[in-house]
Design a protein that fits this description.
161 residues, alpha+beta, 3 helices, globular, disordered N terminus
Length: 161
């Protein structure tokens, strides 16, 4: 009986598996970045905006491609061939180790056909929502900080390789 319950989960998750490439042009990405920063700055103190704008410029990023797999127990995603993030889907605690060897708590939630990841740090956190679509993938990123009234949010669209 337990196998019967797990089978639909694995089958439902399969459409997200595979490789994806970014479909937006560099001009579209630059415009999305500018809009994201402007939305966040609009809620900040006027005197802090120039300093915050310089800081935010470097944090809006996107991957040219993703490789991902999802099964009943874990979600694995790799951006541009970098080492993958492996997230358990069973509710167990997880950590993420960045390129500098620093470890951060990793939050994971399955939201229907989407996977939500939360990378926590000392001064805030980043959230990434991966949503499979009929023709590809939508990736929504946001950065949250106690220093910002409004999170920095941006969205990218990908098609299957």
């Amino acid at each position: 009986m337990r196998l019967l319950l797990l089978a639909p989960v694995a089958l439902a998750a399969a459409p997200m598996n595979g490789g994806y490439v970014l479909v937006s042009s560099q001009a579209e990405l630059a415009a999305e970045k500018e809009r994201a920063i402007e939305r966040t700055l609009a809620e900040m103190n006027f005197a802090l905006r120039p300093l915050a704008a310089r800081e935010l410029e470097g944090v809006v990023n996107w991957c040219q491609s993703y490789e991902m797999t999802r099964d009943a127990t874990q979600f694995t995603v790799s951006c541009d061939g970098k080492p993958p993030v492996v997230a358990p889907l069973d509710g167990s605690e997880a950590t993420f180790t960045n390129r500098d060897g620093e470890r951060f708590p990793l939050g994971v939630q399955v939201r229907g056909d989407a996977i939500w990841l939360k990378f926590s740090g000392e001064q805030g956190h980043q959230e990434v929502l991966y949503t499979g679509t009929a023709d590809g993938l939508v990736v929504e990123k946001s950065i949250h900080s106690p220093f910002m009234e409004e999170p920095l949010r941006w969205t990218m669209r990908y098609v299957r390789k």
